[in-house]
UniProtKB/TrEMBL annotation:
<dbReference type="GO" id="GO:0006629">
    <property type="term" value="P:lipid metabolic process"/>
</dbReference>
<dbReference type="GO" id="GO:0004436">
    <property type="term" value="F:phosphatidylinositol diacylglycerol-lyase activity"/>
</dbReference>
<dbReference type="GO" id="GO:0008081">
    <property type="term" value="F:phosphoric diester hydrolase activity"/>
</dbReference>
<dbReference type="Pfam" id="PF00388">
    <property type="entry name" value="PI-PLC-X"/>
</dbReference>
<feature type="domain" description="Ricin B lectin">
    <location>
        <begin position="308"/>
        <end position="430"/>
    </location>
</feature>
<keyword id="KW-0472">Membrane</keyword>
<dbReference type="InterPro" id="IPR000909">
    <property type="entry name" value="PLipase_C_PInositol-sp_X_dom"/>
</dbReference>
<dbReference type="InterPro" id="IPR051057">
    <property type="entry name" value="PI-PLC_domain"/>
</dbReference>
<feature type="domain" description="Phosphatidylinositol-specific phospholipase C X">
    <location>
        <begin position="51"/>
        <end position="198"/>
    </location>
</feature>
<keyword id="KW-1133">Transmembrane helix</keyword>
<dbReference type="InterPro" id="IPR017946">
    <property type="entry name" value="PLC-like_Pdiesterase_TIM-brl"/>
</dbReference>
<feature type="domain" description="Ricin B lectin">
    <location>
        <begin position="431"/>
        <end position="551"/>
    </location>
</feature>
<dbReference type="InterPro" id="IPR000772">
    <property type="entry name" value="Ricin_B_lectin"/>
</dbReference>
<protein>
    <recommendedName>
        <fullName>1-phosphatidylinositol phosphodiesterase</fullName>
        <ecNumber>4.6.1.13</ecNumber>
    </recommendedName>
</protein>
<feature type="transmembrane region" description="Helical">
    <location>
        <begin position="12"/>
        <end position="29"/>
    </location>
</feature>
<keyword id="KW-0812">Transmembrane</keyword>
<dbReference type="InterPro" id="IPR035992">
    <property type="entry name" value="Ricin_B-like_lectins"/>
</dbReference>
C-alpha cells in the first residue's frame, strides 16, 4: 500500500493511476482550496434532488465571499483584494448558490467593488449572469447578499431607489423573488434570485435581511490568529447543528490576518480545517457556508450534507450489519454494534457509499468478486443503486451485493452476484433492530392489543425493537411488519405499511423524529414517567420529551 491515509489528510490535489486488471482508475485527493478558474464538478442541478418542502433554514448551502473578485489579480491591494478565481458561470456550475456582492453607489448605478477597488462589473452583469443560469436550471435558487460598499459618488437618488430601478427592469429583475416569508421553502424559491438586504433602507424586493434580525452570522474576518478563526467557524457549525428552531445560519470561512495572511493565504488553512470538520459532520445541518477560493470537494461535501445521513446497511436475511474488516479492508457482516466501521454515507450526487471511518468507498472491483473498501475515484464500480426491492446493485457490472452462501456467522463474506431477489441479497439502509429510548430511559413500546405506541421499562422484547429505513423513511417494529404511523387524530399507532407520508420519518440532527406528513415530532405526552405513558405528535420544540436515542 502507498499510505493513502497520510496522503488523504493533506487535501492537496494529486493523481495516482492504479491498474486493476484491465481497468485504469484515476484517484484524486479531496480539494478544499483552489485558485483554478474551471476545475469543478458539474453541480448545475444539485438542488433538483431536494424536496420542495425543504425550508431554507434546514439546508447546507455553499457560497463565495466577495464573489466578483475573479476579475482582478493578486497584484491588486498587495493580494488583499482577490478572493475568487472562478467567474459566475464556473461558480454556479460548481454548486455555489450564494453570492456576496458589494456595490458602490455611483452616478445612480451600482459598479461592483471590493473596498475601494473597482472590479470592472456592474450589478446588471451580476443579474444577467444569474438570470441566464436560472433560465437553464429552473430547479435552482441563487441567494445574493447586496452590500453597499465604498463612498457614494454623484447620485441624485438613494441607494434603495437605484436598487429598485434594477429590480423594475423587465430583463434584469425577471427572476427576483418577491415573497414575504422569512423562511421560505425550496419549492417557493426554485428558479428565483433571493436578494439578502445588507444596506440602509428597505425594499419589497429584498424581504430577507443579511443581518442578525434574520440570520445568526459568524464573520470574524480579521482574527488575531488562525486558531481564533477556526474556533469561531466550528462553534457556529455546532450551533447550527444543535439548534432545532428555524433559525438560519451564515458561516464565513473567509478572512485575513493583517501583515501575515492575505485572504488567499488564510483560505488555504481555513478551507482545509473547515473541510475536515464538515466531512465528519455530513449528517448535520451546516447552514450557508461562505468561502474564499473554495475547492471542488469542499463545495461537494457541503452539497452532500443535504442529501444524506449516516446509516447502517442491515441484512434482510440475518439482521447483521455490513461491516469492514479494518485489517484487510474486506467487507463482511457482523452483529450490529454501532461502531464507525458499520456506518455508511450514501451520496445521492455521486451514488458512492463511503465509510466515515476511512473515507474510502465501497468497491465492486470485479464481477463475482469480493467487496472491498478502496480510495474513492468515481468509477462505475463505486457507484450503487439502492433499489426499493432491498437489493444494492453496482453500475459497473449490474450485480448485487450478496451474503455469500447464506452464511449466518460473524465475519461471513460478502460478494457480488447476479441479482436474484433472494433474502441474502436483501438489505436496508437505516438503523438496525434497536431500542428507542426517551428522556426517562424507558423504551418506545407497542401495546400489542391496541397497536398504540407508548413508553415502557426496557425489556428487549420484539415490541421494543425498531428499524429505520433511510430510503423509505419507514420505522418498523420488530414484533411485526407494521409501520409507525402518525394518525390524523395526533396519536401514534402501528399500522400496515402503505408508503404514505404519515409513515415516513426524518431523524433530525437534534435526535427528534419528525413526520414528513405534518412536520410534527414524536412527543412523550406531558413528560409522563409511567409505564404505558402515551406517545403523540406535537409541534417540534427540541425539549427533552422529544429527544430519542437509538441503542443496541
Amino acid at each position: 500500500m502507498i499510505g493513502f491515509n497520510k496522503i488523504f489528510k493533506k487535501y492537496i490535489l494529486y493523481t495516482l493511476t492504479i491498474a486493476l486488471g484491465l481497468n485504469i482508475i484515476t484517484v484524486y485527493a479531496k480539494v478544499s482550496f483552489s485558485d483554478s478558474t474551471s476545475d469543478v464538478y458539474d453541480n448545475s442541478n444539485w438542488m433538483s434532488k431536494l424536496p420542495d418542502t425543504s425550508l431554507i433554514s434546514e439546508l447546507s448551502i455553499p457560497g463565495t465571499h466577495d464573489s466578483t473578485t475573479f476579475t482582478t489579480t493578486m497584484i491588486a491591494g498587495a493580494g488583499y483584494v482577490k478572493t475568487q478565481s472562478m467567474d459566475f458561470h464556473a461558480q454556479f456550475k460548481a454548486g455555489i448558490r450564494f453570492l456576496d456582492i458589494r456595490a458602490r453607489h455611483s452616478n445612480d448605478s451600482f459598479p461592483i467593488h471590493h473596498g475601494n477597488y473597482y472590479l470592472h462589473k456592474n450589478f446588471a452583469d451580476v443579474l444577467r449572469n444569474t438570470n441566464s443560469f436560472l433560465s437553464n436550471n429552473p430547479s435552482e435558487v441563487i441567494f445574493i447578499r447586496l452590500k453597499e460598499e465604498s463612498t457614494p459618488d454623484n447620485n441624485s437618488r438613494s441607494f434603495v431607489e437605484t436598487f429598485e430601478s434594477y429590480m423594475k427592469n423587465v430583463d434584469l429583475g425577471r427572476h427576483v423573488w418577491r415573497g414575504s416569508n422569512k423562511n421560505p421553502s425550496l419549492g417557493e424559491l426554485r428558479g428565483k434570485i433571493v436578494i439578502l438586504d445588507d444596506f440602509d433602507g428597505s425594499s419589497s424586493y429584498a424581504y430577507i435581511e443579511h443581518s442578525k434580525n434574520d440570520f445568526s452570522i459568524q464573520d470574524n474576518y480579521n482574527p488575531d490568529n488562525g486558531v481564533d478563526k477556526i474556533k469561531s467557524i466550528k462553534k457556529h457549525f455546532a450551533d447550527a447543528a444543535t439548534d432545532s428552531s428555524n433559525n438560519k445560519y451564515i458561516n464565513y470561512l473567509s478572512g485575513y490576518i493583517t501583515a501575515i495572511y492575505t485572504p488567499k493565504g488564510l483560505a488555504k488553512q481555513m478551507n482545509s480545517k473547515s473541510h475536515d470538520y464538515i466531512a465528519n459532520h455530513l449528517d448535520k445541518r451546516l447552514g450557508f457556508v461562505i468561502a474564499d477560493f473554495p475547492g471542488k470537494d469542499l463545495i461537494q461535501d457541503l452539497i452532500n450534507a443535504n442529501n444524506s445521513r449516516l446509516f447502517n446497511v442491515v441484512s434482510g436475511f440475518n439482521n447483521k450489519c455490513l461491516d469492514i474488516d479494518v485489517a484487510s479492508s474486506n467487507v463482511q457482516v457482523w452483529d450490529c454494534s454501532g461502531n464507525t466501521n458499520q456506518q455508511w454515507h450514501y451520496d445521492l450526487q455521486t451514488a458512492q457509499i463511503r465509510s466515515p471511518a476511512s473515507n474510502y468507498c465501497l468497491d465492486a472491483a470485479a464481477p463475482g468478486g469480493n467487496l472491498y473498501m478502496s480510495p474513492c475515484h468515481g468509477g462505475a464500480n463505486q457507484k450503487w443503486d439502492l433499489l426499493l426491492s432491498g437489493e444494492i446493485k453496482d453500475r459497473a457490472h449490474g450485480q448485487c451485493i450478496d451474503l455469500y452462501q447464506f452464511n449466518d456467522s460473524n465475519g461471513a463474506n460478502v460478494k457480488m452476484h447476479e441479482c436474484n431477489n433472494l433474502k441474502n441479497q436483501k438489505w436496508y439502509a437505516g438503523k438496525g433492530y434497536k431500542k428507542i429510548t426517551g428522556y426517562n430511559n424507558k423504551c418506545l413500546d407497542v401495546d400489542e392489543n391496541s397497536s398504540n405506541v407508548q413508553m415502557w421499562d426496557c425489556s428487549g422484547w420484539p415490541n421494543q425493537r425498531w428499524t429505520y429505513n433511510m430510503l423509505t423513511g419507514e420505522i418498523k417494529s420488530g414484533a411485526n411488519d407494521k409501520c409507525l404511523d402518525a394518525s390524523s387524530n395526533g396519536n401514534v399507532y402501528m399500522y400496515k405499511c402503505h408508503g404514505g407520508d404519515n409513515q415516513r420519518w426524518d431523524i433530525l440532527p437534534t435526535t427528534e423524529i419528525r413526520s414528513r406528513a405534518n412536520r410534527q415530532c414524536l412527543d412523550l405526552f406531558e413528560f409522563n414517567d409511567s409505564d404505558g405513558a402515551n406517545v403523540q405528535m406535537y409541534n417540534c420544540n427540541n425539549r427533552k420529551n422529544q429527544r430519542w436515542a437509538w441503542k443496541q
